[in-house]
Amino acid sequence: MFGRYTTGPESGGEDSRPAPGSPSGDLYSGSAMTDRLIDLRSDTVTQPSPEMRRAMAEAELGDDVFGDDPTVIALEQRAAELTGKEAALFVASGTMGNLVSLMAQVPRGGEIIAGHGSHSFAHEAANFAVVVGASMKLLPWGTDGRMDLDAIRRAWRNPRDVHDPITSLVMLENTHSDSMAQPLTAEYVQAVGKVAHDGGVPLHVDGARIFNAAVALGASARELLAPADSASFCLSKGLACPVGSLVVGSRDLVWKARRARKLLGGGMRQVGVVAAAGLVALRHGEAGMVDRLAEDHANARRLAEGLAGLDGVRSPGDIAQPDGGAGPLDPTRVVTNFVLFRVDRDRAAFLAALEARGIAMVAFPHGQVRAVTHHGITAGDIERVIGEVAEVLRGTAPIPAGDPAASAA
Predict the structure, then answer these.
(1) Distance (Å, rounded) from C-alpha 271 to C-alpha 69?
(2) Helix 210-217 / helix 293-308 crossing angle, nearest 10 deg
């Protein structure tokens, strides 16, 4: 079943939507499920390009735990070059990238300053507590995905008070998902880095989609990560690789992260077979996957423009569009590849009806629906999605204002 941001049971009972292809009544009638699903749940659903598949099949391999897989070595060198760091480490996932970065820098009992709803806090199985043994001091985000600089300064604990944890690291997320994937500018990251370093602690950037931020801002990843002591970025999202992320930082940081990766069981052997796709993704220009992210951003903006004109689609509210959630969706909030919105319909039924028409979106926090554009989604797909959403909305009755079903998970 599609339609949820996270897997597993949710509070509020079991999902009652019919399985794809099952009898479902008038709500799910209309255009038949096509053979090709337009999957907008996430940019993690991307498929590797033909060039990636060829590179994977032909990759020169070694044993990465021994440090002699030439394809992995080349990928790590490329990642370090692009981000302006001394070294890099290939890891299995963005979650592992964030976790080993924290393990390398935060002592047991230390505290991490991060934003409410940050991915490391909300969506990585509390690994900062379970594995690192750290706590998090959570600060509110602004509508641009930023924590207030003065609030960060005030969040420092008193190291001379035995009751307090020790402030040990500041973490940012770029792009920032809950704000409709707003990119954080180099100037802001520089300012946060100064606050962190003035306080004697490192800055970690969860840069899962750092290249989306770079393309949207017309900057380089090197500029956006210059103040960061460590950063992670994903190959398996907009860059369309099948698996993998990179951790970048100083040689000492990367050595500690490598030890942490081994502790977690993350050492991989002939892993050049998947690292080869990353080398393709990180090529310059049209040969790679970075520049083409602009297409995803344009498709997301067009989707938002189309949805904004539909009766039944409204503002996502919260920090994604800070208008209280009562107005229409504002397409100008879409600057990268996320489109967040609400519907004045039963959300689960809305998502199931779209699924029956061959379109997958996902329920997101704050009663929102999320659609993410990515490699493999065309401008024609976007027009079809707009039309199908319109049909689903026409075929369903609005939920009265205040009815909890409108924002139920």
Answers:
(1) 8
(2) 80
Beta strands in 70-216 (DSSP E): 87-91, 110-115, 135-139, 166-173, 203-206
Q: How far apart are CA 183 and CA 208, in angstroms?
A: 12
pLDDT mean by block of 10 residues, the chain; 409 residues: 46 35 33 70 95 97 94 98 98 97 97 92 89 96 92 96 96 94 97 98 98 98 98 97 97 98 94 97 95 98 97 94 88 97 95 96 95 97 97 87 54
Say which residues have a Cβ less than 8 Å from residue 151's Cβ, sequence separation at least 6: 139, 140
CB contact set of 400 (below 8 Å; sequence gap of 6+): none
Pairwise CA distance, residues 121 & 117, whole Å: 6
CB of 238 closer than 8 Å to CB of 289: yes
Domain edges within the chain: 26-47+291-407, 50-286
**Do 50-286 and 26-47+291-407 fall under one CATH topology?**
no
Q: Choose the CATH number for 26-47+291-407 among 3.90.1150.10, 3.40.50.10140, 3.40.50.2000, 2.60.40.1120.
A: 3.90.1150.10
CATH 2.40.320.10 fits domain 50-286: no
Instruction: Report the pLDDT value the prediction gives residue 182, as an integer from 0 to 100.
Output: 95
pLDDT at 323: 85
Element (H, E) at 249: strand 245-249
241 SS3 class: coil
pLDDT at 143: 86
Q: What angle do CA 142, 148, 149 make, to 5 degrees?
A: 155
